[in-house]
User: Fold this.
Amino acid sequence: MNRFSRIVLAGLGGLLPAIAQIPQVVDKAFFSQEPKILMKLCSDESIRLNTKDTHLLAEYGDTQLALGNRAGAEAAFAKAALKSPNDAQTHHLIGLAWLRKGFKKEALAAYAAMVNVDLTGSYENRKNIFTKAALDLIKAGEVKLATEYMEAGYRLDKGDAENFIEFGRAALLVGERELSATYFTRAVKADGKDVDVWLGISNAYADLMLLQRKSVAAPPVNP
Assistant:
């Protein structure tokens, strides 16, 4: 690690985990190590190479969670949020990381920050931010909150057929048929003359059928 990287990492705070050093020669033998070791080494190298990207810092926190290092993850997430408080994608990555690992309270706090960012001068669109949060949450089984976020996006723009189809598909695949029908209906009302609307809905039901076939074909679990 060069002197500049050490200085920048030190500026991020002392709570981040120690950054491992990648060997000068990376060959096949390097990649023969255990997956957990390689995950840490490669994640450490990514953060060593770029200490400024808050998206990368959030991803680094996700890796720390996967490694069982909650304190390291919290440090990375806190620093990412502090550096980019109004970047919705940073909060999105943090929320998704917590959600995937089953930390609901922490995930919901990150999503709340995500949908309330100050968008002044940003290319982000708030309805799309609501949709991203809603999609993550419904896939994790948080149907009620996901629907609340999606309804907030709908109130901002009742003509976004693409978002409606995406959420309808996600609802369909978690067994929420009535909710999916609501959003497919909204998509048709928004742009029923667009062939992509009908194709998108058709593909959603095709995905459902594929999921059902996989479920039937799955071997029984031994008691």
Summary: The two ends are 52 Å apart (CA to CA). The chain has two domains: 1-119, 125-223. DSSP finds eleven helices and no strands in the chain.
